[in-house]
User: Fold this.
Amino acid sequence: MSRVLVVVSVVVAAVAGFVLGSSSAEEVSSVPVGDAGAGAKVVVAYPDVPEAWRGWQDDVRESGVLEEAAKDLRSVVALPRELTVEVTTCKDGTGYLQGEALVELCLQDVKSSRDELEDADADDVDETLRGIWRETFFHEAGHALIDLLDLPFTGREEDVADQFAAWRLAESGDEASTDALLSSAFEYEILASAYEADPDDEHSSDAARAVNYLCYLYGSDPDTWEDLVDDEPLTQDRADLCEDEWDRLRLGWRELLDDVDALRG
Assistant:
């Protein structure tokens, strides 16, 4: 059993959810988040999906995870236009649609994540899934901010989006958010062991993404997260760099948003 699995099994049990109303067969159920005066809204929407996928959609809706994440996003960033997050079926996988201010969280990916966790005998599949959905929201929100605010960046955009997710989840400091980083790192470890890295993928390897998330979390509070440092996957050599990596990540995102007058709080 990996060190991440041990940690996840301990900390993911505290994620709380709440139940929202259901959508009709013909209407989109939308939940606008936050007040209208402080930047544009974030809308979490649950459009009609084929019957076979409605139970999966209900799981996401009833968790309240995306609505909670949307509130955090609006507390930090003044969006220039409304951002919509749809929980739906889709052809090309979860992602942000460039120029459309739309994130699709694909129910096919929700199912795939559950299958992966169950195959790995994860201790608390439901709570780990909720953490993964929370991280997914912030990763795709990172893409949205780059697009909507025309933010400059260097390197691969996928890495930058990961760093935005890590910033929001680690800086928030609440248990549900830090659990989300651990849950996502655990899933990336599973994927790294199951699939060979694709050199053509625009993302970093799954193994690298797992270690990066652990590093950023450790760097944000080394005393609290010292148990994450082990021979595998987060080594002491990498951990020695993590405080500096975290500080650069946190300050960098704050400066980027401040430069375009979008930073709140």
Remarks:
- Confidence is low (pLDDT under 50) at residues 1-29.
- The chain is about 55% helix and 10% strand.
- The longest helix spans residues 125-148.
